[in-house]
From TrEMBL:
It comes from the Bacteria. It comes from Amycolatopsis taiwanensis. Pfam families: Abhydrolase_11 (PF20408). This is Alpha/beta hydrolase. Residues 25-163 form the KANL3/Tex30 alpha/beta hydrolase-like domain. GO terms for molecular function: hydrolase activity. The lineage of its organism: Bacteria, Bacillati, Actinomycetota, Actinomycetes, Pseudonocardiales. The keyword ATP-binding does not apply. Keywords: Hydrolase.
Length: 202
């Protein structure tokens, strides 16, 4: 594992790199609004990706690196994410990138997929709406993604459940927003999806 500090327009971000022996793609994973890259679902998915030959970067946003818990505005999160993606593209010789993350990190991955030319998007616990407020849907962020996308959602997630669409599939597993009730299922689903989506690159 290598820890890399990357300058962004909103302060330094940190990327924890887990390099596969002969990686043919890079998975960038972002954390939730109040959590970090040690979340159980992120760690499980990172291991699953590494096992199928994908480099992994667990990305810590600048506000977390600076020790703040309250998330930065969306435009700052997106700009910082794209700066990290650009730096990692150079580091990994422009290998195809999969953008991903949990909760807030999943939203960032969706919003930046086009600008960052992501090959695919992986969303863990996409927050479809704030708890108890289904009218404040974030579905348009997901619908705007035009590359293959997987959403893994807990069946009792208070943040709701996104609808599937032409470019994204939604898989429901036991658990809540934390997605830590069935890590074996999460590992299996994400590794199978990554292998299938990235097969043309091998």
């Amino acid at each position: 594992m290598t820890s890399l500090t990357i300058e962004t327009p909103h302060g330094p971000a940190r990327a924890e790199l887990h390099c596969a022996e002969e990686g043919f793609a890079v998975l960038l994973l972002g954390h939730g609004a109040g959590g970090g890259v040690a979340a159980k679902d992120l760690v499980a998915v990172a291991r699953a990706a590494h096992a199928v030959g994908v480099h992994v970067a667990l990305v810590e946003q600048p506000y977390r690196v600076a020790g703040r818990r309250a998330p930065a505005p969306a435009r700052q999160l997106d700009a910082a994410w794209l700066a990290v993606a650009e730096e990692l593209a150079e580091r990994f010789d422009d290998l195809p990138q999969v953008f991903g993350g949990r909760s807030s990190g999943a939203r960032v991955a969706c919003r930046t997929a086009s600008a960052g030319q992501a090959f695919a998007v992986l969303c863990l616990a996409f927050p479809e709406h704030p708890p108890g407020k289904p009218e404040r849907t974030r579905q348009p962020e997901l619908d705007a993604v035009e590359v293959p996308t997987l959403v893994v959602q807990g069946e009792s997630d208070p943040f709701g459940r996104p609808e599937a669409g032409p470019h994204h599939e939604v898989v429901v597993i036991p658990g809540t927003h934390a997605l830590d009730s069935d890590l074996d299922a999460l590992t299996r689903i994400t590794s199978e999806w990554l292998s299938r989506v990235l097969r043309p690159l091998e």
